[in-house]
Amino acid sequence: MKKEKHAEEIPEVNEVKQETETPETPQVEETSEQAAEQIADDLEVLTQKCAELNDKNLRLMAEFDNYRKRTLKERMDLIKTAGESVLVNMLPLIDDFERAQKAMETSEDIVAVKEGVELIYNKFIAFLMQNGVKAIPTENEEFNTDLHEAITTLPAPTEDLKGKIVDCVSKGYTLNDKVIRFSKVVVGE
After folding, report:
1. With a threshold of 0.90, does the pTM exceed it?
2. 26 located within any domain
3. Does 118 share its domain with 138?
4. 120 and 156 within one domain
5. Residue 171 is part of a domain; what is its CATH number?
6. 119 φψ region: left (φ > 0), alpha (ψ -120 to 50), beta (else)
7. For residues 134 and 151, is the Cβ–Cβ distance under 8 A?
8. Pairwise CA distance, residues 31 & 10, whole Å
9. Are residues 122 and 171 in the same domain?
């Protein structure tokens, strides 16, 4: 009985072998054609995506170039008109100086003219301070190369004036804590 079972099993195995050994050339050709079609479809999709990305990139570059040009133009316009508000606020000072000149021509009271010029000067100093301009202190100050420019040196009249500023030839100014003009000073040695 065992032999019969074994013998019966063998033909089944042989049948399976025969089924698997049959040539499948037509299926391989169909598979390669399908693969070629799939590759062609994928290539077309990728080509479209590449074209879309190139178009997006080109548009983005053009948009950035337009943005750069626009901001450059705005910056140039801002630079041209940046001092406008300061100059507009200085116009009343010019008016005051013109009135003072007329008053000097006709006035015989020198004291009144002097007081008028001092008022204009104080008004101008207040205007500068409102715009962040401050005078650099020099009287009895230590010489500081970050704020002062030494024109010359003189022997110090007293020991405590050595290395200090003896005289200021022209005032220096800062704009928002940045030196815009150094003080020209004489330093004691």
Report:
1. no
2. no
3. no
4. no
5. 2.30.22.10
6. alpha
7. no
8. 33
9. no
Beta carbons within 8 Å of 137's beta carbon, 6+ residues apart: none
Q: Does residue 166 lie in a domain region? A: yes
pLDDT in tens, 142-186: 998 899 999 999 888 888 888 888 889 999 999 998 999 999 999
Assigned domain for 158 exists? yes
- How far apart are alpha carbons 148 and 164 in whole angstroms? 11
31 lies in some domain: no
- Written as six digits, the tokens of 124 are 């101008």
Residue pair 153/110 in contact (Cβ under 8 Å)? The answer is no
Backbone angles phi, psi at 109, to 5 degrees: -90, 100
What angle, 0 to 180 degrees and rounded to 10, lies between the N-to-C axes of helices 84-106 and 110-130?
170
Mean pLDDT of the chain: 84
Bigger pLDDT: 155 vs 21:
155
Q: How far apart are CA 64 and CA 14, in angstroms?
A: 73
The tally of domains found in the chain comes to: 2
- Amino acid letter, residue 38: Q
Domain around 164: 134-189
Instruction: Give yes or no for a contact between 110 and 132, defined as CB atoms under 8 angstroms apart.
Output: no
Burial of 187 (0-12, 13-18, 19+ CB in 10 A): buried
pLDDT in tens, 108-131: 888 888 899 999 999 999 999 998
d(CA 172, CA 128): 13
Tally of helices (H runs) and strands (E runs) in the chain: 4, 6
